[in-house]
Request: fold
Amino acid sequence: MIVKDNLVRVFIKKEVSEGMRFIQISCISLILCSLFNAEAKSQDFNWKVGLFTFFDNTEFSGSSFKVPQTMSGVALSPEAGLRWDSVYSFGAGVSLVHEFGSTNAIDYYYPTAYFHYNKEPFRFTMGAFPRNNVLEKYPRIFFQDSISYYRPNINGIFWEVGRNQNYLNVWLDWTGRQTEVTREAFFIGFSGRYNIGILYAQHFGYMYHFASKMNPVIDEALHDNLLFLTSVGVNLAPLTGLTQLDFNAGWAIGLERSRADQTGVINRGGFLMEARVEHKGIGLLNTFYKGKGTQYFYNDHGNELYWGDPVYRARTYNRSDIYIRFLRNSKVNMKLVYTLHFLESKVFHEQSLKVSIDLNRFSRGN
Reply:
C-alpha cells in the first residue's frame, strides 16, 4: 500500500500527540465561542456533518508504473462554528477515517479549524480546512485519487477572486513540519479560468518544496518540483441539451531539480486532452496524455515527493471513466465508476464506488 504508507503514515503517525493537542484546543475554542454566541447579536451558530465512504479497486498487476491495491473506508467529519455579518465565519472539528477491515476504530484523524471570508468576488480561508472545497478541479496529473481519501485537509491559506465561473486563486498547503523524522515540505499553487461564451481557457499550477529533515544523519538533497497545465476548451452542453459536453486540450510542463545533486532544471511534460459527455447521470470522461514521462525522481522518493498519479511517468497513457451517478443533490452524492487504463500496451481495470453525505444547519442568534 505504497500511497498510504508514504502519504499518511509518514506524515501523520509521527505527529499524533501534536494532533491531539490541536483537537483539544479547537474544541475549547468552539465551546467558548458557543457561549459567546448566546449573548451576541447578528451571529449564527452552525454545524456540519460530512460522511464520505469509498471503495476503489485498482487492478495494475504487471504494471511497472503503478501497484495493484484496494483502498476502502469511511470518513466522518463533524464540524461546528460561528458566522457573523453574513460574510465572516470560522469552523472547528475533525475528520475521522476508518479503513474497512481494520481492527482500529479510527485509523487516521485530521483536525479542522479555520477562518473563512466570503463576499463576492472574494473568498479567503486560512487554517486547516477541507481540500476538496478548493482543489477539486485539479486534474489527476497533479493529485491522484488517494489524496482525497487519506489527506482530506489543507493546512494553510486559500484566496480567490471570481464571478460567473471566472476565477483566479492562489493557495498554500504546508504538508510537513521539519523534525528529525519528517522533511519540511509545502505546496504553493495557483489556478484560474476565463470563459468567453462556450469557449474557455484554464490554468493549473503548483510548486512543491521538499526539503530535508532536521539534523539529518546523511545529507538529503532539497527538491523543487513545479508542474503547470494550460489548456483551452469548449463547453457545448448549452447547445445540445446534454448535462455535460466538454472538450479541452493543453500542454503540461514539469520542471524539477535536485539542488545538492546539481542536476539543473529537468523539463518533462506533454500534451494532455480531456473529453466529457454526460446525460441523465450516465457519462464518459476520457483523458489522454502523450509526451515525456513526468516524476523524474520517483524511484528515489516515490509518493513522498509526487502527489500526482504515477501513471503519468509513462510516455503514452489513456484513461476512460464510464460512470453512473445514482444520486446527486445538495445532500447526497453516489457515483459508480468503471475505468479502463490503456498503459504499456496493456489494458488495466479499476472499479470504484463513492458516496458522500453533507448535512448542515444554521441557527440564528437572538
User: Anything to note?
Assistant: Residues 131 and 153 are 5 Å apart (CA to CA). Confidence is low (pLDDT under 50) at residues 5-20, 30-40.
